[in-house]
Specification:
This protein has 166 residues and is an alpha+beta fold. A five-stranded mixed beta sheet has the order 1-2-3-4-5, sandwiched between helices. The relative contact order is 0.13.
């Protein structure tokens, strides 16, 4: 089904297409897309700092990017092994239902195995039933015993400065 596509590691020349896909994902998730400075940082963090890694899916022939997966590694102290954290996986709507999302996901699974990961993790918006069904069909288990917490940049700055003044 995905014979009209190529999945490969992202290259710097894919930057514009990656940003276009990231904006499409933000629109799909009803979130504010990254501003110009954020767009520059993400490209820098993938290709210069190598903090993130990415696979892209492109159409054979045109080379147009139609999907991507963005991931990085964390570490499990109890397993003493890395964890592949899947930050984003996205396929443009007109290219869905062709096995492309599954192929991108399996590419990440293979990368986790290659890197000796003890686990692979990601988060899913609670309203995204299609994604939930997709992952559970592949054998993923939803964790009920963990809550995710977040500090925003403003809170990080405030806390960091309060620690230095106390």
């Amino acid at each position: 089904m995905t014979t009209n596509y190529v999945i490969r590691r992202a290259k710097r020349q894919d930057s514009k297409g990656i940003i276009e896909l990231l904006v499409a994902l933000a629109n799909y998730e009803k979130l504010e897309p990254p501003d110009q400075e954020s767009r520059k940082r993400i490209i820098r963090d993938i290709f210069s700092k190598k903090m993130l890694r990415s696979f892209v899916a492109s159409e054979k022939g045109s080379g147009k990017l139609v999907g991507y997966a963005l991931y990085f590694f964390t570490y499990s102290s109890f397993l003493a092994r890395p964890t592949l954290y899947l930050e984003d996986i996205f396929v443009l709507e007109e290219h869905r239902k062709k096995g492309l999302g599954r192929d991108l996901f399996i590419k990440c699974v293979s990368e986790a195995e290659k890197e000796g990961c003890g686990r692979m993790e990601w988060s899913v918006l609670t309203w995204n039933k299609n994604a939930i069904d997709f992952y559970e069909k592949l054998g993923a288990k939803r964790l009920d015993e963990w809550y995710y917490y977040r500090l925003t940049a403003d809170t990080i700055t405030a806390l960091a400065h309060s620690a230095t003044t106390s």
